[in-house]
Structure formats: C-alpha cells, structure tokens
Amino acid sequence: MARHTDTIAALATPAGTAALATIRISGPDTMRIAREALGTEPRDRVATHCDYAERGGSVADDVVATVFAGPRSYTGEDTLEISCHGSPFIAQKILADLLARGCRPAGPGEFTQRAFLNGRMDLSQAEAVMDLINARSERSLAAARQVLRGALGRHMAELVDGILGVLATVEAQIDFPDEDLPPEDRGRLEERVSAVLAGARRMLATERTGTLLREGITTVILGEPNAGKSSLLNRLVGSDRAIVSPEPGTTRDFIEVRVNVGPHGLRLVDTAGLNPDATGIESIGIAKTLEIAARADLFILVMDATRPTPPLPDALVESITASNTLVVLNKADLLTERERSAAVPMRGFRSVTVSALNGDGFGPLLAELATLADGLQTTVGEERIAINVRHAHFLAEARSCLEDALSKIKNQEPAELLASELRGALGALGEISGKVDNERMLDQLFASFCIGK
Fold first, then answer.
1. Beta bridge partners of residue 105, listed in sequence order
2. Where are the domains of the chain?
3. pTM, to two decimals
4. What is the pLDDT of residue 64?
5. Lowest mean pLDDT among 138-152, 209-223, 302-316
C-alpha cells in the first residue's frame, strides 16, 4: 500500500465567482493544519462552522470544514474539505495560506490517484470518476456510475478467477507429474478456457457503446436541398443554430451541435443538401457530407413531403439501413389528412411525418430516435458497462492469448506452452484493474483529470 510524505491541496470547484467554493487537502499534515487554521479539533465526518485564520492571525472567511480520517476517506488518507464563500479572492487566500503551512499544489487527478494507490478503488473505477464528471446524458451517467461502483472490476475478477482455475490445473500437471493427480482432461480444459474467452468477447463488444456514451452518437441529417434539414436541427436544438432560407443550398458546410434525446447524447450534424446537379462550392459541401456520413452512427433522412421521394447517391445506399436510419417526412403542415396517412417514403424503414415549422410530430420523432439509439448499445447482462480504448486494448490482448491457449489445447501441445498463454491473459487483464505496476501508464491516465480531483 502506498504512503505519501507530503500533503496536497487544491481548489475542487471551478474558478470564478459563485455562492461557494471548496478546497481539498489530503496527506499526513492534514490534521495539524486543521487544528491550526480552524482553531478547533474537527470531528471525523462532522461539518464544523468556524473561522479560517491565516498564519498572521487575520480571519480569511467563516467556513464549513469537514474532516475525513483515513483510511475511510476518498484518498485513503486524512483529508479536509473547506467550503468558503465563492469569491475567487477568498478561495485563493485560503489556498495560498495552506501552501504556506506546508501543503503542495495537487497535480491533475492526484486525489484520485492517491485513492487508487491506497487501495480505495481499482484503476477502472478511477477512470470512471472522470467519466462521471464528463457525463452528458442519462446513459453515460448510468454507465459511469456502474463502473465506479465496481461493475467492470467484478467482471474482470470473474475472468481472472476463471483463468486462475485453469492455470492451477495446468501447472499442477507441470510441477507434479509423478504425483497421484487426476489425469489431464483436455476436453474439460477446453470448455473452461472457452467460457472465459466468451466472457472477454462480451466485454469487448461494449467498446463501441463506450465510445458512443463518451463522445455522443454521431447523427447525420441528410436530404435534398430545401427539404428542411436546418429547420429540423433548429427545432431539435431549441434555438436558431442553423441559417434557414427558402433559397436551396443555403448550407454549404456542416454544422455540429450536441443534444440529448431521451437518455442518449447525440452529436447532430446538419449537412449540405444532396443536389445531384451541384457545382462549385456546393459540390464541395456535398463531398463533405458523404465523408461525414461514412463515419456516422445514425442518420436522419429528411424528405419534403410535398415532393416525390428523391434517389439517394450510390455512396449512401450501402450506409443507410433500417437499423440506423429514421426517415422524416417534413412539411406536414402543407399536406391534407389523406396525404399524410398515405405517405410511405421508404418501406421497411422507421418513419415519422413532421412539420419543422410548427413542431407537429416531434414527439414521435424523438421517440423513434431514442429507439434507434438503444439498438446501438450493448449491455452485459443487466449492467450497462462501457469499456474505453485502454480497456479494449488489454481485453483484445487477453482474447488473443486465450484463443492461442485454446489452439494449444486442441493441438495437444505441451502444458508449459498452454500455461504461458494463460499467464499472458492474466497479465493483460491485470493492466485493466491496475494490478500490474505500470508507472508511465498511470502518469498519463491521471494527467487527463482536472485539478482538485
């Protein structure tokens, strides 16, 4: 277990004027500083209203201070949280005084890094702290919360336990070949390794979900010029984000904006109209549309309900499917009831009839978008676990080792080679939880955190 000889301090709330500001302190000198600055012996986990006295004796502010004695604290060390008035001047005065009393400015993510090093959380939980802070939708928040509560760690532990069980059997055969041990059952070993491999593959399948939750679901709005794409975007955003004009081809470049649709975070991209006769700068805009569409997750295909269904460019036909596309018949305010009920734009595709002008039909549109977004995301049982790129890298490494182990079992290769592959899988999974010491990786990971966390 790590021990630190210094005490760190940092502002834990954003810089700027607010009602309150919070300063965090962690380390071996925390209790001494609390007694000196607060003039009292704070009780563990009890909020204390008192004056904060600077070293010269003047009162910086009246504060509410809470001590969390280690190891039952966020960092595993003695910690102190000081809540003062939200004047940047007051917060900086208190922070400067803490540094004068022997604290060191905390680096990015250093409080969470100490929590990890002191065994308060594993590495996947530490990463989930940052995901929680950056969450922009209900789904991303729920996924981060589940990982923070140990869901990913539990699944990794199950995989590790499965490998250890197989490895124990294999190494017993290696180390004690002459003992009275049960004969090696390669068929049973194959079953056990296959079960662990299936678990690793299930976890790997959530990588795309993790990307969608963290970055947002890229949702491209397509359609011919003047179909109402920009009006649709403005209606979804709730403000005039895009220029709307009766003149076709107004949008020459793409416009991107984030919105929440139900529990999902979407990155809406309004693109240039698909005009087969475009020239000059308009044709450049359409080329950009096709480029963006190639990496989209969802499509909103906007059609003018008063016009015949236009043909799609060949480059889009393969990308657009019933599982990733919502067809939106716009300008419903210009249709009769009979025309509305008869409108069937693309058979087999989800479709809604709306009016971007007055908002008619946007309730069903949002519901259909949320349903499509649901279909993009993978769960592990009932848990919404979203691995990140680092997790995926080591899971893929573990999968490769397990696949090689299966091959060696089937080909009756020596047990020593099988054990080597199993140990490789264990090492890769250990990188995910942080059980394997990798100082450089840890430094890079925590450097992405904000100061004070």
1. 9
2. 8-120, 127-206+384-434, 221-376
3. 0.79
4. 97
5. 302-316
Q: Which two tokens stand for residue 194?
A: 């296959």
Q: Assign domain 8-120 one CATH number from 3.30.1130.10, 1.10.3210.10, 3.30.70.1560, 3.30.1360.120.
A: 3.30.1360.120
Cα–Cα distance for residue pair 257/407, rounded to 1 Å: 48
Task: Give the pLDDT score at 294.
Answer: 87
| Backbone conformation region of residue 94, classed left if phi is above 0, alpha if psi is from -120 to 50, else beta | alpha
Question: Would you say 204 and 396 are in contact if contact means Cβ atoms under 8 Å apart?
Answer: yes
pLDDT at position 355 over 50: yes
CA distances from 278 to 223, 281, 285, 286 (A): 14, 8, 9, 8
Token digits for 49?
């209203």
CA–CA distances in Å: residue 430 to residues 124, 159, 199, 241, 424: 11, 11, 16, 47, 10
Q: CA–CA separation, 452 vs 188, rounded Å?
A: 51
Which CATH entry fits the domain spanning 221-376: 3.60.60.10, 3.20.70.20, 3.40.50.2020, 3.40.50.300? 3.40.50.300
Q: Are strands 59-68 and 79-85 parallel, antiparallel or unpaired?
A: antiparallel
pLDDT at 181: 44
Range in 30-39, 65-74, 119-128, 333-342 with the lowest mean pLDDT: 333-342
CA 196, CA 425: separation in Å to the nearest integer?
10
What backbone torsions phi and psi does residue 189 show, to the nearest 5 degrees? Answer: -60, -40
Overall fold of domain 127-206+384-434? Four Helix Bundle (Hemerythrin (Met), subunit A) (1.20.120)
pLDDT of the residue at 54:
96
Q: How far apart are the first and last CA of the chain?
A: 20
With a cut of 70, say whether residue 241 has pLDDT above it: no
Cβ partners under 8 Å of residue 178, min gap 6: none
Measure the CA–CA gap between 6 and 53, rounded to whole angstroms: 22
